[in-house]
Design goal:
Oligomer: single chain
Helix content: 25-40%
Distance between the termini: 48 Å
Bound molecules: ribulose-5-phosphate
CATH class of the largest domain: Alpha Beta
Order of helices and strands: HEHEHEEEHEEEHEHEEEE
Number of strands: 13
Radius of gyration: 18 Å
CATH architecture of the largest domain: 3-Layer(aba) Sandwich
Shape: globular
Strand content: 15-25%
Largest sheet: 6 strands, mixed
CATH topology of the largest domain: Rossmann fold
Number of helices: 6
Structural class: alpha/beta
Length: 242
């Protein structure tokens, strides 16, 4: 008799389903943005499978050293912005998605700056999540990760506190060391609680000197694929509201 799947296994299955669906959008010759995180890792795995079994050829632009390494190990050809600044399709995960909207929080994996740069360079930016990531208000389950310059981070943290972030401190890694992004910066994970007005908060955060980018994605996403027990729900830009 088969043991029933655990909640974690079910989530992983859903992430994989969303990732497979997104991988079917990749066509020969495309330049493809490769996201970061466990859902994106499924996407890259599926692209590796298509590369090796179907002979699909494209070029990947990774959003982190981690994703670059995974893609290289699968044999996927990589490129960067020195070769071209246009991406056909970028695919990435998210930490929270506002139910029914293309508004979300990303960056708990620490790659938010590169992720946003790649998303903005893409003609089509597809976000892949399982339904546990859906929330009625952003900030309910996830902090807003904010990438800041190491110099003067204390000033940025103080201003973020004034905006309502609870005890804003730089992120530490698993070993208790300061977390440093691929770009050499720091991340302050800001616990605001449920956010009533995402656009206001986004705008105020962006005004703080020393803030490089926030993990709030308000108007960047073309579509969200949500894997549910009934299959994939697809929310596209025609329904986009901020
Ligand atoms: O933004 C990210 C990394 O910076 C990830 O996409 C986000 O954290 C989701 O991760 P996962 O797919 O592991 O749930």
């Amino acid at each position: 008799m088969n043991t029933p799947a655990t909640a974690d296994e079910l989530r992983a299955q859903r992430k994989q389903e969303a990732a497979r669906h997104a991988a079917s959008f990749v066509e020969p010759g495309m330049v493809v943005g490769l996201g970061t995180g466990s859902t994106s890792a499924f996407f890259i795995d599926e692209l590796g499978r298509r590369w090796n079994r179907e002979g699909l050829r494209f070029k990947g632009i990774p959003t982190s050293e981690r994703s670059a390494q995974q893609a290289r190990e699968l044999g996927i050809e990589l490129t960067d912005f020195s070769e071209q600044t246009r991406i056909d399709l970028a695919v990435d995960g998210a930490d929270e998605v506002l139910r029914g909207r293309l508004t979300l929080i990303k960056g708990l994996g620490g790659a938010l700056l590169r992720e946003k740069i790649v998303a903005h360079a893409a003609d089509r930016f597809v976000v892949i999540v399982d339904d546990k990531k859906l929330v009625d208000k952003l900030g309910t389950t996830a902090p807003v990760p904010i990438e800041v310059t190491p110099f003067g981070w204390e000033c940025a943290a103080e201003r973020l506190g004034r905006l309502g972030a609870r005890a804003p401190k730089p992120r530490m890694d698993r070993n208790g060391q300061l977390y440093v992004t691929d770009g050499g910066n720091m991340i302050i994970d800001c616990h605001f609680g449920p956010i009533e007005d995402p656009l206001y908060l986004f705008t105020e955060i962006a005004k703080i000197v020393g803030v490089i980018e926030s993990g709030m994605f308000l108007d960047d996403v073309s579509e969200v694929l949500v894997a549910t027990e009934h299959g994939i729900d697809r929310l596209t830009a025609t329904e986009r509201r901020v």
